[in-house]
Amino acid sequence: ILMVDEKGKNMKCLTFFLMLPETVKNRSKKSSKKGNSSSSSSSSKLPPVCYEIITLKTKKKKKMAADIFPRKKPANTNTTSVQQYHQQNLNNNNTIPAPNWQGLYPTIRERNAVMFNNDLMADVHFVVGPPGGTQRLPGHKYVLAVGSSVFHAMFYGELAEDKDEIRIPDVEPAAFLAMLKYIYCDEIDLAADTVLATLYAAKKYIVPHLARACVNFLETSLSAKNACVLLSQSCLFEEPDLTQRCWEVIDAQAELALKSEGFCDIDFQTLESILRRETLNAKEIVVFEAALNWAEVECQRQELTATIDNKRKVLGKALYLIRIPTMALDDFANGAAQSGILTLNETNDIFLWYTAAKKPELQFVSKPRKGLVPQRCHRFQSCAYRSNQWRYRGRCDSIQFAVDKRVFIAGFGLYGSSCGSAEYSAKIELKRQGVILGQNLSKYFSDGSSNTFPVWFEYPVQIEPDTFYTASVILDGNELSYFGQEGMTEVQCGKVTVQFQCSSDSTNGTGVQGGQIPELIFYA
Protein backbone atom coordinates (compact mmCIF):
# COMPACT_ATOMS: atom_id res chain seq x y z
CA ILE A 1 0.00 0.00 0.00
CA LEU A 2 1.46 3.33 -0.96
CA MET A 3 0.49 5.99 1.55
CA VAL A 4 0.74 9.60 0.43
CA ASP A 5 0.00 12.90 2.07
CA GLU A 6 -2.55 15.43 0.79
CA LYS A 7 0.06 17.08 -1.42
CA GLY A 8 0.83 13.80 -3.18
CA LYS A 9 4.24 13.21 -1.60
CA ASN A 10 5.29 9.64 -0.78
CA MET A 11 5.19 9.03 2.94
CA LYS A 12 5.39 5.26 3.54
CA CYS A 13 5.06 2.00 1.70
CA LEU A 14 3.39 -0.83 3.63
CA THR A 15 2.47 -4.37 2.59
CA PHE A 16 -0.37 -6.30 4.21
CA PHE A 17 -0.99 -10.05 3.68
CA LEU A 18 -4.36 -11.51 4.46
CA MET A 19 -4.50 -15.32 4.46
CA LEU A 20 -7.80 -16.62 3.25
CA PRO A 21 -9.49 -19.09 5.70
CA GLU A 22 -9.78 -21.97 3.17
CA THR A 23 -6.11 -21.73 2.33
CA VAL A 24 -5.13 -21.89 6.01
CA LYS A 25 -7.26 -25.04 6.51
CA ASN A 26 -5.67 -26.90 3.54
CA ARG A 27 -2.23 -25.93 4.59
CA SER A 28 -2.64 -27.23 8.14
CA LYS A 29 -3.95 -30.65 6.89
CA LYS A 30 -1.00 -31.25 4.62
CA SER A 31 1.50 -30.12 7.18
CA SER A 32 0.16 -32.66 9.73
CA LYS A 33 0.87 -35.60 7.34
CA LYS A 34 4.51 -34.64 7.14
CA GLY A 35 5.22 -33.90 10.71
CA ASN A 36 8.74 -35.39 10.64
CA SER A 37 9.86 -33.16 7.83
CA SER A 38 11.79 -30.04 8.46
CA SER A 39 9.97 -26.77 8.54
CA SER A 40 11.78 -25.57 5.46
CA SER A 41 10.94 -28.64 3.34
CA SER A 42 7.32 -28.58 4.53
CA SER A 43 6.99 -25.02 3.49
CA SER A 44 8.39 -25.70 0.08
CA LYS A 45 5.97 -28.53 -0.69
CA LEU A 46 2.86 -26.79 0.60
CA PRO A 47 0.49 -25.39 -1.95
CA PRO A 48 1.02 -21.69 -2.59
CA VAL A 49 -0.62 -19.38 -0.10
CA CYS A 50 -3.14 -16.97 -1.60
CA TYR A 51 -2.82 -13.38 -0.66
CA GLU A 52 -5.51 -10.68 -0.98
CA ILE A 53 -4.37 -7.14 -1.46
CA ILE A 54 -6.58 -4.64 0.30
CA THR A 55 -6.48 -0.92 -0.48
CA LEU A 56 -6.77 1.28 2.60
CA LYS A 57 -8.70 4.51 2.02
CA THR A 58 -8.43 7.55 4.27
CA LYS A 59 -11.21 10.02 4.74
CA LYS A 60 -10.37 13.20 2.97
CA LYS A 61 -12.09 16.53 2.89
CA LYS A 62 -13.89 17.05 -0.36
CA LYS A 63 -12.26 19.66 -2.52
CA MET A 64 -13.86 22.09 -4.83
CA ALA A 65 -12.60 22.65 -8.33
CA ALA A 66 -10.98 25.89 -7.28
CA ASP A 67 -8.93 24.04 -4.65
CA ILE A 68 -7.80 21.36 -7.06
CA PHE A 69 -7.05 23.73 -9.91
CA PRO A 70 -5.68 26.99 -8.51
CA ARG A 71 -6.79 29.92 -10.55
CA LYS A 72 -4.08 31.21 -12.86
CA LYS A 73 -3.68 34.79 -13.90
CA PRO A 74 -4.14 35.32 -17.63
CA ALA A 75 -0.78 35.35 -19.35
CA ASN A 76 -1.81 37.53 -22.27
CA THR A 77 -4.26 40.22 -23.25
CA ASN A 78 -6.63 37.74 -24.92
CA THR A 79 -7.95 36.53 -21.57
CA THR A 80 -10.33 38.54 -19.41
CA SER A 81 -10.90 38.29 -15.66
CA VAL A 82 -14.30 37.63 -14.13
CA GLN A 83 -14.20 41.04 -12.50
CA GLN A 84 -13.71 42.66 -15.89
CA TYR A 85 -16.62 40.67 -17.30
CA HIS A 86 -18.77 41.82 -14.37
CA GLN A 87 -18.00 45.45 -15.05
CA GLN A 88 -18.51 45.05 -18.77
CA ASN A 89 -21.76 43.22 -18.28
CA LEU A 90 -23.12 45.89 -15.96
CA ASN A 91 -22.59 48.45 -18.70
CA ASN A 92 -23.11 46.41 -21.83
CA ASN A 93 -25.05 43.19 -22.06
CA ASN A 94 -23.74 42.36 -25.53
CA THR A 95 -20.29 41.33 -24.32
CA ILE A 96 -18.74 38.60 -26.47
CA PRO A 97 -16.44 36.38 -24.36
CA ALA A 98 -12.98 35.50 -25.57
CA PRO A 99 -12.58 32.28 -27.59
CA ASN A 100 -12.51 29.21 -25.35
CA TRP A 101 -13.49 31.39 -22.40
CA GLN A 102 -14.80 28.30 -20.56
CA GLY A 103 -11.24 27.10 -20.09
CA LEU A 104 -10.22 30.22 -18.25
CA TYR A 105 -12.31 29.52 -15.16
CA PRO A 106 -12.01 26.31 -13.12
CA THR A 107 -15.29 26.60 -11.17
CA ILE A 108 -18.90 26.56 -12.30
CA ARG A 109 -19.46 29.69 -10.23
CA GLU A 110 -16.92 31.65 -12.25
CA ARG A 111 -18.20 30.34 -15.57
CA ASN A 112 -21.74 31.11 -14.50
CA ALA A 113 -20.73 34.65 -13.60
CA VAL A 114 -19.60 35.32 -17.15
CA MET A 115 -23.21 34.87 -18.27
CA PHE A 116 -24.47 37.60 -15.93
CA ASN A 117 -26.27 40.28 -17.98
CA ASN A 118 -24.90 38.65 -21.13
CA ASP A 119 -26.88 38.07 -24.35
CA LEU A 120 -24.83 34.95 -25.10
CA MET A 121 -27.22 31.95 -24.99
CA ALA A 122 -29.95 34.11 -23.40
CA ASP A 123 -33.38 32.50 -23.80
CA VAL A 124 -35.45 35.25 -22.15
CA HIS A 125 -35.33 39.04 -21.87
CA PHE A 126 -36.78 41.37 -19.24
CA VAL A 127 -37.99 44.92 -19.88
CA VAL A 128 -37.47 46.38 -16.41
CA GLY A 129 -38.59 49.73 -15.02
CA PRO A 130 -41.49 52.16 -15.34
CA PRO A 131 -42.51 53.56 -18.75
CA GLY A 132 -39.90 56.02 -19.96
CA GLY A 133 -37.18 54.50 -17.81
CA THR A 134 -36.99 50.90 -18.95
CA GLN A 135 -33.93 48.76 -19.54
CA ARG A 136 -33.84 45.49 -21.50
CA LEU A 137 -31.89 42.80 -19.67
CA PRO A 138 -31.03 39.27 -20.84
CA GLY A 139 -31.57 36.15 -18.76
CA HIS A 140 -31.06 32.39 -18.80
CA LYS A 141 -34.09 30.44 -17.60
CA TYR A 142 -32.18 27.57 -16.02
CA VAL A 143 -29.93 29.84 -13.94
CA LEU A 144 -32.86 32.01 -12.84
CA ALA A 145 -35.00 28.99 -11.93
CA VAL A 146 -32.18 27.61 -9.76
CA GLY A 147 -31.94 30.91 -7.92
CA SER A 148 -35.62 31.72 -7.39
CA SER A 149 -38.76 29.66 -6.87
CA VAL A 150 -40.76 32.41 -8.57
CA PHE A 151 -38.65 32.17 -11.71
CA HIS A 152 -38.94 28.37 -11.54
CA ALA A 153 -42.73 28.59 -11.51
CA MET A 154 -42.62 31.23 -14.24
CA PHE A 155 -40.52 29.13 -16.64
CA TYR A 156 -41.09 25.48 -15.63
CA GLY A 157 -44.26 25.43 -13.55
CA GLU A 158 -47.66 24.10 -14.54
CA LEU A 159 -48.81 27.55 -15.64
CA ALA A 160 -45.54 28.51 -17.31
CA GLU A 161 -45.82 30.78 -20.34
CA ASP A 162 -43.38 30.55 -23.20
CA LYS A 163 -42.55 34.24 -23.59
CA ASP A 164 -39.35 35.62 -25.01
CA GLU A 165 -39.85 39.00 -23.34
CA ILE A 166 -41.25 39.75 -19.88
CA ARG A 167 -42.19 43.24 -18.69
CA ILE A 168 -41.49 44.18 -15.05
CA PRO A 169 -42.62 47.81 -14.53
CA ASP A 170 -42.62 47.78 -10.71
CA VAL A 171 -38.87 47.05 -10.21
CA GLU A 172 -36.05 49.50 -10.81
CA PRO A 173 -33.42 48.33 -13.33
CA ALA A 174 -30.54 48.85 -10.88
CA ALA A 175 -32.32 46.75 -8.24
CA PHE A 176 -33.13 43.98 -10.74
CA LEU A 177 -29.47 43.93 -11.84
CA ALA A 178 -28.36 43.64 -8.21
CA MET A 179 -30.64 40.63 -7.80
CA LEU A 180 -29.39 39.03 -11.03
CA LYS A 181 -25.80 39.56 -9.89
CA TYR A 182 -26.53 37.63 -6.72
CA ILE A 183 -28.24 34.80 -8.63
CA TYR A 184 -25.52 34.50 -11.29
CA CYS A 185 -22.37 35.46 -9.40
CA ASP A 186 -23.25 34.68 -5.77
CA GLU A 187 -22.20 38.24 -4.95
CA ILE A 188 -24.12 40.87 -2.97
CA ASP A 189 -23.58 44.39 -4.23
CA LEU A 190 -25.73 46.92 -2.36
CA ALA A 191 -25.83 50.71 -2.43
CA ALA A 192 -27.63 53.14 -0.12
CA ASP A 193 -29.74 54.63 -2.90
CA THR A 194 -30.96 51.28 -4.29
CA VAL A 195 -31.07 48.96 -1.28
CA LEU A 196 -34.80 49.45 -0.64
CA ALA A 197 -35.61 48.73 -4.28
CA THR A 198 -33.34 45.68 -4.14
CA LEU A 199 -35.14 44.47 -1.01
CA TYR A 200 -38.44 44.83 -2.87
CA ALA A 201 -37.10 42.77 -5.79
CA ALA A 202 -35.69 40.10 -3.45
CA LYS A 203 -39.03 39.85 -1.66
CA LYS A 204 -41.02 39.72 -4.91
CA TYR A 205 -38.94 36.90 -6.40
CA ILE A 206 -38.37 35.12 -3.05
CA VAL A 207 -34.60 35.37 -2.80
CA PRO A 208 -34.37 35.22 1.02
CA HIS A 209 -30.61 35.45 1.51
CA LEU A 210 -30.41 38.61 -0.58
CA ALA A 211 -33.39 40.04 1.32
CA ARG A 212 -31.63 39.32 4.63
CA ALA A 213 -28.48 41.06 3.38
CA CYS A 214 -30.57 44.11 2.42
CA VAL A 215 -32.11 44.23 5.90
CA ASN A 216 -28.67 43.96 7.53
CA PHE A 217 -27.42 46.78 5.31
CA LEU A 218 -30.37 48.95 6.34
CA GLU A 219 -29.88 48.20 10.03
CA THR A 220 -26.22 49.21 9.96
CA SER A 221 -26.99 52.44 8.07
CA LEU A 222 -30.00 53.30 10.22
CA SER A 223 -30.01 56.82 11.72
CA ALA A 224 -32.47 59.45 12.89
CA LYS A 225 -32.51 60.94 9.38
CA ASN A 226 -33.89 57.82 7.67
CA ALA A 227 -35.55 55.95 10.57
CA CYS A 228 -39.10 57.13 9.79
CA VAL A 229 -38.89 56.19 6.11
CA LEU A 230 -37.38 52.81 6.94
CA LEU A 231 -40.10 52.25 9.54
CA SER A 232 -42.69 52.70 6.82
CA GLN A 233 -40.83 50.36 4.45
CA SER A 234 -40.13 47.71 7.10
CA CYS A 235 -43.86 47.43 7.81
CA LEU A 236 -44.54 47.12 4.08
CA PHE A 237 -41.91 44.37 3.70
CA GLU A 238 -42.95 42.65 6.95
CA GLU A 239 -39.49 42.80 8.54
CA PRO A 240 -40.14 42.87 12.33
CA ASP A 241 -36.47 43.06 13.32
CA LEU A 242 -35.91 46.14 11.18
CA THR A 243 -39.15 47.64 12.50
CA GLN A 244 -37.95 47.20 16.08
CA ARG A 245 -34.60 48.84 15.27
CA CYS A 246 -36.38 51.78 13.67
CA TRP A 247 -38.52 52.28 16.78
CA GLU A 248 -35.43 52.23 18.99
CA VAL A 249 -33.89 55.07 17.00
CA ILE A 250 -37.14 57.06 16.73
CA ASP A 251 -37.84 56.77 20.46
CA ALA A 252 -34.35 57.78 21.59
CA GLN A 253 -33.68 60.44 18.93
CA ALA A 254 -37.27 61.50 18.44
CA GLU A 255 -36.70 65.21 17.88
CA LEU A 256 -34.03 64.57 15.24
CA ALA A 257 -36.24 62.00 13.52
CA LEU A 258 -39.30 64.28 13.53
CA LYS A 259 -37.31 67.19 12.10
CA SER A 260 -35.78 65.09 9.31
CA GLU A 261 -36.88 65.42 5.69
CA GLY A 262 -37.67 61.71 5.62
CA PHE A 263 -40.49 62.19 8.16
CA CYS A 264 -42.51 64.08 5.55
CA ASP A 265 -42.24 61.13 3.13
CA ILE A 266 -44.01 58.59 5.34
CA ASP A 267 -47.54 57.32 4.67
CA PHE A 268 -50.55 58.22 6.80
CA GLN A 269 -50.60 54.91 8.67
CA THR A 270 -46.99 55.36 9.77
CA LEU A 271 -47.74 58.96 10.80
CA GLU A 272 -50.53 57.73 13.06
CA SER A 273 -48.33 55.06 14.64
CA ILE A 274 -45.63 57.63 15.44
CA LEU A 275 -48.08 60.19 16.88
CA ARG A 276 -49.58 57.41 19.03
CA ARG A 277 -46.18 56.31 20.37
CA GLU A 278 -46.09 56.38 24.17
CA THR A 279 -42.28 56.24 24.46
CA LEU A 280 -41.55 59.11 22.04
CA ASN A 281 -38.75 61.11 23.68
CA ALA A 282 -39.65 64.58 22.39
CA LYS A 283 -41.33 67.81 23.40
CA GLU A 284 -44.93 67.94 22.22
CA ILE A 285 -44.39 71.21 20.37
CA VAL A 286 -41.82 69.41 18.20
CA VAL A 287 -44.38 66.66 17.47
CA PHE A 288 -46.96 69.32 16.56
CA GLU A 289 -44.62 71.17 14.16
CA ALA A 290 -43.55 67.89 12.52
CA ALA A 291 -47.19 66.97 11.88
CA LEU A 292 -47.81 70.36 10.21
CA ASN A 293 -44.74 69.89 8.00
CA TRP A 294 -46.00 66.46 6.97
CA ALA A 295 -49.44 67.91 6.19
CA GLU A 296 -47.94 70.53 3.89
CA VAL A 297 -46.02 67.92 1.87
CA GLU A 298 -49.08 65.65 1.81
CA CYS A 299 -51.11 68.48 0.26
CA GLN A 300 -48.53 68.65 -2.53
CA ARG A 301 -48.75 64.87 -3.05
CA GLN A 302 -52.52 65.14 -3.34
CA GLU A 303 -52.21 68.21 -5.58
CA LEU A 304 -53.97 70.44 -3.05
CA THR A 305 -53.13 74.01 -2.16
CA ALA A 306 -51.38 74.01 1.21
CA THR A 307 -54.02 76.05 3.06
CA ILE A 308 -54.86 75.68 6.73
CA ASP A 309 -58.12 73.92 5.88
CA ASN A 310 -56.42 71.46 3.54
CA LYS A 311 -53.67 70.72 6.07
CA ARG A 312 -56.29 69.91 8.66
CA LYS A 313 -58.17 67.84 6.10
CA VAL A 314 -55.16 65.60 5.26
CA LEU A 315 -54.30 65.23 8.95
CA GLY A 316 -57.82 64.11 9.77
CA LYS A 317 -58.21 62.37 13.12
CA ALA A 318 -54.43 62.10 13.49
CA LEU A 319 -54.48 65.72 14.71
CA TYR A 320 -56.07 64.56 17.96
CA LEU A 321 -53.19 62.16 18.60
CA ILE A 322 -50.96 65.18 19.21
CA ARG A 323 -51.00 65.77 22.97
CA ILE A 324 -51.42 69.53 22.77
CA PRO A 325 -52.72 69.93 26.37
CA THR A 326 -49.39 68.51 27.65
CA MET A 327 -47.32 71.28 26.01
CA ALA A 328 -45.70 73.94 28.13
CA LEU A 329 -48.08 76.92 28.30
CA ASP A 330 -45.58 79.13 26.46
CA ASP A 331 -45.23 76.56 23.66
CA PHE A 332 -48.98 76.39 23.27
CA ALA A 333 -49.59 80.15 23.42
CA ASN A 334 -46.79 81.05 20.99
CA GLY A 335 -47.08 78.00 18.76
CA ALA A 336 -50.17 75.82 18.47
CA ALA A 337 -52.66 78.52 19.48
CA GLN A 338 -51.45 80.83 16.72
CA SER A 339 -50.96 78.20 14.03
CA GLY A 340 -54.53 78.49 12.75
CA ILE A 341 -54.87 74.70 12.61
CA LEU A 342 -57.11 74.69 15.72
CA THR A 343 -60.65 75.98 15.75
CA LEU A 344 -61.55 78.88 18.04
CA ASN A 345 -63.47 76.58 20.39
CA GLU A 346 -60.53 74.13 20.58
CA THR A 347 -58.13 76.97 21.41
CA ASN A 348 -60.42 78.34 24.16
CA ASP A 349 -60.99 74.90 25.68
CA ILE A 350 -57.25 74.16 25.80
CA PHE A 351 -56.55 77.53 27.48
CA LEU A 352 -59.21 76.65 30.08
CA TRP A 353 -57.56 73.25 30.51
CA TYR A 354 -54.35 75.03 31.55
CA THR A 355 -55.94 77.56 33.90
CA ALA A 356 -59.41 76.55 35.10
CA ALA A 357 -60.13 74.42 38.14
CA LYS A 358 -62.97 72.73 36.29
CA LYS A 359 -61.38 71.48 33.10
CA PRO A 360 -63.41 71.02 29.92
CA GLU A 361 -63.54 67.79 27.98
CA LEU A 362 -61.08 67.63 25.10
CA GLN A 363 -60.80 65.47 22.01
CA PHE A 364 -57.02 65.69 22.30
CA VAL A 365 -55.05 63.19 24.39
CA SER A 366 -54.27 64.99 27.64
CA LYS A 367 -51.99 62.43 29.29
CA PRO A 368 -48.23 63.14 28.87
CA ARG A 369 -46.11 60.58 27.04
CA LYS A 370 -43.99 58.32 29.23
CA GLY A 371 -40.91 58.87 27.15
CA LEU A 372 -37.77 56.88 27.91
CA VAL A 373 -36.16 56.42 31.31
CA PRO A 374 -32.41 57.11 31.14
CA GLN A 375 -30.01 54.58 32.60
CA ARG A 376 -26.82 55.50 34.46
CA CYS A 377 -23.57 53.59 34.32
CA HIS A 378 -21.46 54.49 37.40
CA ARG A 379 -17.81 53.46 37.06
CA PHE A 380 -16.38 54.33 40.51
CA GLN A 381 -16.83 52.44 43.76
CA SER A 382 -16.15 55.47 45.94
CA CYS A 383 -15.36 59.18 45.77
CA ALA A 384 -13.20 61.56 47.83
CA TYR A 385 -11.81 65.08 48.01
CA ARG A 386 -8.50 66.59 49.06
CA SER A 387 -7.25 70.08 49.71
CA ASN A 388 -5.41 70.27 46.37
CA GLN A 389 -7.65 68.12 44.13
CA TRP A 390 -9.71 68.09 41.88
CA ARG A 391 -8.80 71.44 40.27
CA TYR A 392 -9.92 72.84 36.91
CA ARG A 393 -7.87 75.21 34.79
CA GLY A 394 -9.26 74.62 31.33
CA ARG A 395 -7.71 71.16 31.08
CA CYS A 396 -9.52 68.12 29.66
CA ASP A 397 -10.85 65.15 31.63
CA SER A 398 -11.40 62.22 29.31
CA ILE A 399 -12.13 58.47 29.31
CA GLN A 400 -12.73 55.89 26.58
CA PHE A 401 -15.59 53.37 26.68
CA ALA A 402 -17.19 50.63 24.60
CA VAL A 403 -20.53 48.82 24.87
CA ASP A 404 -21.72 45.39 23.74
CA LYS A 405 -25.16 46.61 22.59
CA ARG A 406 -26.33 49.64 20.66
CA VAL A 407 -27.20 52.51 23.02
CA PHE A 408 -27.83 56.26 22.85
CA ILE A 409 -25.67 58.48 25.06
CA ALA A 410 -27.79 61.34 26.41
CA GLY A 411 -25.17 62.97 28.65
CA PHE A 412 -22.65 62.55 31.46
CA GLY A 413 -22.94 62.61 35.23
CA LEU A 414 -20.24 64.88 36.74
CA TYR A 415 -18.98 65.55 40.26
CA GLY A 416 -19.55 68.95 41.83
CA SER A 417 -17.94 71.16 44.42
CA SER A 418 -16.46 69.72 47.61
CA CYS A 419 -16.41 73.17 49.24
CA GLY A 420 -20.10 74.06 49.37
CA SER A 421 -22.43 75.25 46.63
CA ALA A 422 -20.83 76.26 43.36
CA GLU A 423 -21.56 76.65 39.66
CA TYR A 424 -19.53 75.08 36.87
CA SER A 425 -19.38 75.65 33.15
CA ALA A 426 -19.00 72.35 31.29
CA LYS A 427 -18.14 71.65 27.67
CA ILE A 428 -18.93 67.99 27.03
CA GLU A 429 -17.88 66.11 23.91
CA LEU A 430 -18.26 62.64 22.43
CA LYS A 431 -15.90 61.41 19.71
CA ARG A 432 -15.19 58.31 17.68
CA GLN A 433 -11.74 57.97 16.13
CA GLY A 434 -11.24 61.72 16.42
CA VAL A 435 -14.59 62.64 14.79
CA ILE A 436 -16.94 64.68 16.99
CA LEU A 437 -20.36 63.04 17.22
CA GLY A 438 -21.90 65.33 19.80
CA GLN A 439 -20.98 68.27 21.98
CA ASN A 440 -22.67 70.83 24.19
CA LEU A 441 -21.75 73.78 26.39
CA SER A 442 -23.87 74.25 29.50
CA LYS A 443 -23.75 75.12 33.18
CA TYR A 444 -24.71 73.10 36.20
CA PHE A 445 -25.10 73.94 39.88
CA SER A 446 -23.74 71.65 42.59
CA ASP A 447 -24.95 71.72 46.18
CA GLY A 448 -21.72 70.66 47.87
CA SER A 449 -22.67 66.99 48.14
CA SER A 450 -20.82 64.03 46.61
CA ASN A 451 -23.73 63.34 44.27
CA THR A 452 -23.32 63.41 40.51
CA PHE A 453 -24.99 66.12 38.43
CA PRO A 454 -26.27 65.47 34.88
CA VAL A 455 -25.07 67.43 31.87
CA TRP A 456 -26.96 66.67 28.64
CA PHE A 457 -26.22 66.67 24.95
CA GLU A 458 -28.68 68.55 22.76
CA TYR A 459 -29.69 65.23 21.18
CA PRO A 460 -28.81 61.67 22.25
CA VAL A 461 -25.88 60.21 20.30
CA GLN A 462 -26.12 56.71 18.80
CA ILE A 463 -23.33 54.39 19.97
CA GLU A 464 -22.53 51.20 18.05
CA PRO A 465 -21.33 48.06 19.88
CA ASP A 466 -17.74 46.83 20.13
CA THR A 467 -16.16 50.19 19.26
CA PHE A 468 -14.36 52.53 21.63
CA TYR A 469 -15.65 56.10 21.97
CA THR A 470 -14.05 59.02 23.80
CA ALA A 471 -16.03 60.96 26.41
CA SER A 472 -14.48 64.32 27.35
CA VAL A 473 -15.34 67.31 29.50
CA ILE A 474 -13.61 70.65 30.09
CA LEU A 475 -14.82 72.21 33.34
CA ASP A 476 -14.43 75.81 34.41
CA GLY A 477 -14.97 76.67 38.07
CA ASN A 478 -13.13 78.17 40.99
CA GLU A 479 -13.99 75.50 43.54
CA LEU A 480 -12.33 72.12 43.97
CA SER A 481 -14.57 69.12 43.34
CA TYR A 482 -15.02 65.54 44.40
CA PHE A 483 -13.31 62.88 42.30
CA GLY A 484 -13.88 59.16 41.83
CA GLN A 485 -11.75 56.32 43.22
CA GLU A 486 -11.49 52.56 42.78
CA GLY A 487 -12.53 52.68 39.13
CA MET A 488 -13.73 49.55 37.32
CA THR A 489 -12.65 48.50 33.84
CA GLU A 490 -15.99 46.76 33.20
CA VAL A 491 -19.46 47.61 34.49
CA GLN A 492 -22.71 45.69 33.94
CA CYS A 493 -25.62 48.11 33.63
CA GLY A 494 -28.89 46.25 33.04
CA LYS A 495 -28.44 44.28 29.81
CA VAL A 496 -25.53 46.46 28.67
CA THR A 497 -21.87 45.77 29.47
CA VAL A 498 -19.60 48.83 29.41
CA GLN A 499 -15.80 48.65 29.23
CA PHE A 500 -13.50 51.54 30.11
CA GLN A 501 -9.92 52.39 29.20
CA CYS A 502 -7.69 55.43 29.57
CA SER A 503 -7.75 58.18 26.95
CA SER A 504 -4.75 60.04 25.57
CA ASP A 505 -6.93 63.18 25.43
CA SER A 506 -7.05 63.34 29.22
CA THR A 507 -4.74 66.12 30.49
CA ASN A 508 -6.24 66.69 33.94
CA GLY A 509 -5.60 63.29 35.51
CA THR A 510 -8.82 61.41 34.78
CA GLY A 511 -8.33 57.71 33.99
CA VAL A 512 -9.84 54.33 34.66
CA GLN A 513 -8.85 54.25 38.34
CA GLY A 514 -9.96 57.75 39.29
CA GLY A 515 -11.03 61.25 38.26
CA GLN A 516 -14.07 62.90 36.69
CA ILE A 517 -16.89 61.67 34.40
CA PRO A 518 -18.18 59.11 36.92
CA GLU A 519 -21.35 58.36 34.95
CA LEU A 520 -22.56 57.74 31.42
CA ILE A 521 -26.27 58.52 30.97
CA PHE A 522 -27.87 56.57 28.15
CA TYR A 523 -31.01 55.05 26.63
CA ALA A 524 -31.02 51.37 25.69
UniProtKB/TrEMBL annotation:
GO terms for cellular component: cytosol. Residues 122-192 form the BTB domain. InterPro entries: BACK, BTB/POZ_dom, PHR, PHR_sf, SKP1/BTB/POZ_sf. Residues 34-45 have a biased composition (Low complexity). One of its GO terms (biological process) is dendrite morphogenesis. Gene3D superfamilies: 1.25.40.420, PHR domain (2.60.120.820), Potassium Channel Kv1.1, Chain A (3.30.710.10). Residues 25-46 are annotated as: Disordered. Pfam families: BACK, BTB, PHR. It is found in: Cytoplasm. It comes from the Eukaryota. Its main location: cytoplasm. Keywords: Cytoplasm. This is BTBD3 protein.
